[in-house]
Amino acid sequence: MSRAKPGGTFKGTVEVTGGDHQVSIGYIALVLVTDARPQGGLPGQTSTVEIHRQRVVEGFTLAARERRIFDITCDVPMETPLTRAFGQPLAGMNVGLRTELEVAREVDRTDLDPVQVDPTPAQQHILDTLTKLGFQFVKADVERGRLRGLPQTLPFYQEIEFLPGTAYAAHLHNLQVTFVGTDRKLHVVMELDRKVGPSPTATSSAASPSTPPPSPTPTGAASSRTGSPNPPPARAPSSNPRATLPRRPPLPR
User: Which domain holds residue 41?
Assistant: First the structure.
C-alpha cells in the first residue's frame, strides 16, 4: 500500500486483533495526511492536514483475541502532494496514511504509515523538461491557501522549488512549481523570483562592434539611448544665447 500516483489508489491490508474481551468496532477508516505550513510561514511552523478520508470497513464484532485481516483500497486525490521525483525522495515532504479504528465510540488514531506518491506522466514530463533546461531541485513543502482562478479543492497546495541553471542564473533567484490536477486537466503554476538590475544583454550589445556608432550629442545635452541606430529625438534650442542669435548679414560696400 506504500506507493501510488495522484488519481490512483493505495492497496493493502488492515489487520485487527482482539484483546481480552469482545468489542464492537464501529468502522475502520483510512486518512491520507501531510504537513502544511501557514501561508508565508516558516518551514518549522507546520501542522497536520487531511488530504482524503475514506471508510474502508463498516461495523463488526471482534471476539476476544480474534484476528481479522481486511483487504482495502484508498483513493489518491489528483491534488495529493508528491513525495518522490528525479529517482529520489523530495526533501521536506511527508505524506502518510493513518488508520482510524472506532472502538466503543472512541477513535484510535495512533497508527500512521508513511507512503510514497510518484508523479503522473504529465507531471513527470514537466519536471524532466525543467531538468533538461538546467534547473536543479532544492526542496518541496505544502502551504495553506488557495490559488486564484484554479479548480483547487483542497485548502493547501504543494510548492516544488528549483535553482536556475547557468542559462538563467543571471536573471532568476529561483523557480517554484505547483500542480493542480483534475480528472481532465493538469494546471501548472510557475512562480519566478527574478533578479533586479541592469540587463547584461543591453550592456554587451552597446559594446558590440557590429552596432553603428551613436549620433553626436549636442553640447549641453545628454542622450537617453546608448548605441541606438535611430537619431536622438528633436530637442529644444539651447539656452546659450550664442546658439540662438541669427547671423548678421555683411555690410554693403
Answer: 3-117
Q: Taking the alpha carbons of 64, 69, 70, 74 in that order, is the dihedral positive or negative?
A: positive
- Within a domain: residue 105? yes
On whether residue 12 sits in a domain, the answer given is: yes
Amino acid letter, 30? L
Whole-prediction pTM: 0.73
State which amino acid sits at residue 243: A
Q: CA 238 → CA 221, 233, 245, distances in Å?
A: 9, 14, 11
| Contact status, residue 170 vs residue 199, Cβ threshold 8 Å | no
Contact status, residue 69 vs residue 13, Cβ threshold 8 Å: yes
Q: Domain count of the chain?
A: 2
Summarize pLDDT for 143-156 with one digit per residue, the tens: 999 999 999 999 99
Starting at the edge strand found earlier in the chain, the sheet holding 95-103 runs 47-62, 23-36, 95-103, 106-114
Q: What is the CATH classification number for the domain harbouring 94?
A: 2.60.40.10
